């Protein structure tokens, strides 16, 4: 059996952004201002620069103002903390996003912990992580939110299904597992790079989500026919035929899995755009809660 569906995150993300745009206009009408996201970037990590550019252009398209502040790569924790403090206190700011990873001299946990949870559009603060586990969070982490939106859009059943999450990062694996536990009736198996016999776990899965950041990790022999494959990996591998010298691949062997999976997300064009679309949803949600403006369900 060949693949039935390429899960087109790029097209769905466009739909999400256009829905957010309608609601942003409504917000602006009722609140007398547009939602505002402030992005903090420290240093010049090339991947982070691309991500921030994508986030800004998605906001632009969704009727959301987005301003970035770029700090030199050698600043200390206090310099970032002072900026976050200012943004916390600025009533015009609806969302604060500190792009990760931060340079090694910066205490990333301290910075994350000091963001006002009401402006925490990444869903990374301890308060929002806790709310996520109780199933009462308003601001869900962007990649897990995007994955759930995609599964729902394609009517992929989760009730009673085995979902294997490969990866336990605080950005994707752990919050995704918590979100699945809190909001679906799936059985959730969380694996990591030390998992003994990963293949045995993945073979049990009706849905596998790989967020390990290891190209080639999920091979066709590890997946049953009819499994849904969600590839969160974004890995740069050398490719001299490209002007950039590299190309992006996921964690999963897309070409081989295409012949076996029921549905699969491509890289690029799968979960990446859904993450960015979820961010603009979060900014609008934060803005409407903060301003006390009812814009209806997203
Ligand atoms: N770096 C990689 N992904 C993310 C994300 O979702 N949010 C932030 N702030 N940094 C990231």
Task: Provide a descriptive summary of the structure in words.
This protein is of the alpha/beta class and 298 residues long. It folds into two domains: 86 residues, Rossmann fold, CATH 3.40.50; 131 residues, NAD(P)-binding Rossmann-like Domain (Rossmann fold, 3-Layer(aba) Sandwich), CATH 3.40.50. The chain is globular, with a radius of gyration of 19 Å. The mean pLDDT is 97. Guanine (GUN) binds next to strand 4. The site of guanine has 8 residues, from strand 4.
Short summary of the structure?
This protein has ten helices and eleven strands.
Helix content: 40-55%
Classify the secondary structure makeup into a structural class.
alpha/beta
User: What's the CATH class of the largest domain, please?
Assistant: Alpha Beta
Question: What is the name of the CATH topology of the largest domain?
Answer: Rossmann fold
Q: Topology of this protein?
A:
Layout lengths: L4 E2 L2 H23 L4 E7 L3 H16 L3 E7 L5 H13 L5 E4 L9 H7 L11 H9 L7 H12 L8 E5 L6 H11 L3 E5 L6 H6 L3 E4 L17 E4 L3 E4 L7 E4 L4 H4 L5 E2 L6 H21 L7
Parallel strand pairs: 1-11, 2-3, 2-4, 5-6, 5-7, 7-8, 8-11
Antiparallel strand pairs: 9-10
The site of guanine (GUN) has 8 residues, from strand 4.
Describe this protein with a few key phrases.
2 domains; globular; Rossmann fold; 11 strands; binds guanine; alpha/beta; three-stranded parallel β-sheet; six-stranded parallel β-sheet; 298 residues; 10 helices
